[in-house]
Model the fold of this input.
Amino acid sequence: MTGWRGHGRNMLIVTPFFALFGLFGVWPVLRSAWLSFTDYHATDEPVFIGLRNYAELFADERFWTALANTAAYMGAVSAIAVVLGLVLALNFGSNSRLHQWVRVAFFLPAVAGGVGAISAWKWMASSEAYGLFNSLRATLGLEPARFLGDPQWTLPVLVLVGVWSVLGYNLVLFVAGLRAIPDELYQAARLDGASRWQQLLHITLPNLRPTLVYVSVAGMVARFQVFYEPYLLYGAVDTLGGPLDSALMLVTYLFDRGFRQLDLGLASAAAWVMTALLFGLAWLNLRLIGKEGRR
Amino acid sequence: MVGDDKTPQLMQPAVEAFRARHPGVAVEVRDVPWADAMTKYSAALASRRGPDLVTGSTSYAIALGTKGALVDLREAAPDLARELERHANPGALRAIRRADGRIYGAPFDMHVQLQYYRSDLVAAAPTDWNGFLATARALRARGHGVAQQWGNTSWLGFYPYLRQAGGAVYDPSCRRAVIDRPEAVRALTYYARLYRELQAPTDGWPDADGGLESGAYGLMQSGTWLLSRMDMVHKGLVGKWAAAPLPAGPTGKRTAVLGGTVLAITRFSPNQKLALDFMRTVYRPDVTRRMAEAALAYGGMWLPSGRQDQIAALDLPHRDALLAQLADAEGPPPCPAWMRQDYLVTRAVQRVVLAGADPQVELGRAAAVMNRALGVR
Done:
């Protein structure tokens, strides 16, 4: 029988990890849960106010704007990046030199992104006639568009930047998933006269399901927490949400309430609502895609 | 201190003067980027540790002060408060003085909006609203646009027009929003023309100075930081640009928004006495002047809002325009509710500018929401 005593040395070895995890992982989470029920501004001790932060949050129309923007952004980027990533993986997944270079090209944004890349996007999408996109429009005889100054362009611009930054990552994961599918399955299918489309539907996609689940769930979770792209592209010294709050995302909203207005109790409530939504989304995803895979 | 890696250079004269009086005291100046300041300060406040002195935007100082995070100078250092009353920029001081008279910090530096124009395209800067429209139309006819950079399509860009028209966001007691008054409607109607008629760009921060160099814009509005940087950054503009105060509105005022920072002592500082003495050192005329000169030496622009009397002695480009505008400049509304409500004014402005909504309706909506939150019946 193995008990705590039998694992004493092992437990001792993992104790530092659990101590640090508890201190920097679990404790802040529990603390923020408590703060979400308090009136707290960092300057004085938190005062318990029950569910008032949640009530204020749900009554704030900016919160709903941020939620709608975040959902639209997450849905669009996740769907496009998964479909395009898969299409690219199916077409550029071999070991040929050309395919390797294509994969490197698509993966570059994942390693070379960040503030510098967003600044470059800001320059390209600038509303001035000499912005890159507007220069291209001019060659087609089109009037300059206000890519960063017109709410109808906000989501397309953010989705473009979001897909660009994540596509290479999805591509690499899909290529790895495709290579894990035994070649014998395709050989057998070809012997049975299956077309390429039938092979895709009945061999590739079912076998790729674990990768699809991971890419979808992880991608949605990451997109749901989007912050610096809209913040850098649309934020200014006096406003965070861009034109008509069209770039206001949940994390931007949380940042505004927590660190600009010092409503840390309300910001904690917003964080917990986000957490609940993320759990719900992940659960739904696993139910929809994962359940199919277990059949 | 909010700033960049040059900030310690700016503070060096104050540090040296302070250490001459307190040889045993070590002073460490740390710069915090604007984007990180609020999170770092909040973390410091939550832990009851951190810097003895901080700088931050005017609105943020009011918000922090209201939450009890900063020392009230009127109470802690009446001598310094009186000194500031005499020498600080009146607009900067009004912006941080609360309705009850408390002052949670001292004006530290400031920037105001100015008109910048291509002197080879425009003979003289427009001096009033109508003149601005006429000049902008003439420029557009020749292929040059107009732009607003600092505060574009937000409350900050609209605020000068509001004040020039005689309007206000709140009444003097800060208890009622008055943004729906006819003066404000008139201001917003005019402001919207810059975009709807003159087609000014609506990006959050358009490349207006770059556009001035390329000729895309012949006239634009931005902050005073460009005065010392323009020739350095835009070589093609050397000798081809000038600056002027904003055009006057119907009241004859040329009010610009006064931005900048406030120097304040954190309530949890264990060294409040020393920190107060450091502040007294910063506001000594000789120290202030040396700080401003240190900034100019590295191509920066530090305009001491706490000792405005020293600015006239500085060798600044377009100094007359700058001094004229500083004399008619105001900070954001010094009301505790403002940081929670500024987005409502921005939204009204953007609905009018971007969606063509009616100024009266939008400002009425904003005022109604603001007053509901303020408890006005």
In short: The beta strands of chain B are 53-57, 106-118, 145-148, 217-223, 241-244, 256-265, 329-330. Chain B touches chain A at residues 34, 38-39, 42, 45-46, 57, 60, 63-64, 67-69, 150-156, 201-207, 210-211, 214, 216, 259, 267, 339-340, 342-343, 346-347, 350-351, 354-355 (CB under 8 Å). Chain B has two domains: 7-110+257-330, 113-256+334-374. Chain B has a mean pLDDT of 92.
